[in-house]
Design a protein that fits this description.
By secondary structure, the chain is an alpha/beta fold. It is built from four helices and six strands, in the order βαββαβαβαβ.
Length: 171
């Protein structure tokens, strides 16, 4: 049975995915704060390579929700370390550890700047803000890791989650 690492496991979407996967797979949680219900929990920062290496050890699949999720965030102060540097550390550590599959939580902010288009496609890249630029970078970096090292990589462009309660997502 594949061992799954969920980064950002204490966040809005990460908690929901963690709760849904935990009954079916061995799941490891990684976040800067504790994840409710996590027996295999790694507390750390995405920009800390040693913490990433420890979290990735023995993992088959990574579901990456970690990073700064704010559309209003400052690029240098808030986004660069977790969303760019942290993603590099995670993908590189995954490659070295033999991780088979990497699922990247991207964002519709990658394409929402394309206001002149009637319909967006998976190939549409027209960032809406600096946060969207980090997600576009992540999609392309993942594609490069796939092309160069053969790691399965899937980017999922998630829309705005808002302030909905956890109980609305879990059956």
């Amino acid at each position: 049975m594949p061992r799954v690492l969920i980064t950002g496991s204490a966040g809005r979407v990460g908690q929901v995915v963690f709760a849904d996967l935990a009954p079916h797979f061995p799941v490891r949680a990684f976040d800067r704060r504790p994840t409710p219900g996590a027996a295999d929990l790694h507390i750390g920062d995405l920009a800390d390579r040693a913490a990433i290496d420890r979290a990735v050890a023995g993992i088959d699949t990574i579901v990456h929700f970690g990073g700064c999720p704010s559309m209003q965030a400052d690029f240098i102060g808030d986004l660069l370390r977790p969303n760019i540097e942290g993603l590099w550390h995670l993908l590189d550590a995954a490659r070295l550890a033999g991780v088979q599959r990497f699922i990247f939580a991207s964002s519709t902010n990658v394409a929402f700047g394309a206001t002149e288009k009637n319909q967006l496609t998976p190939d549409t890249v027209h960032v809406f803000n600096p946060y969207g630029a980090t997600k576009a970078f992540g999609e392309n970096l993942g594609r490069w890791f796939h092309d160069t090292y053969g790691m399965d990589f899937l980017a999922v462009r998630i829309g705005y989650v808002g302030e909905l309660g956890y109980e609305l997502y879990v059956e």
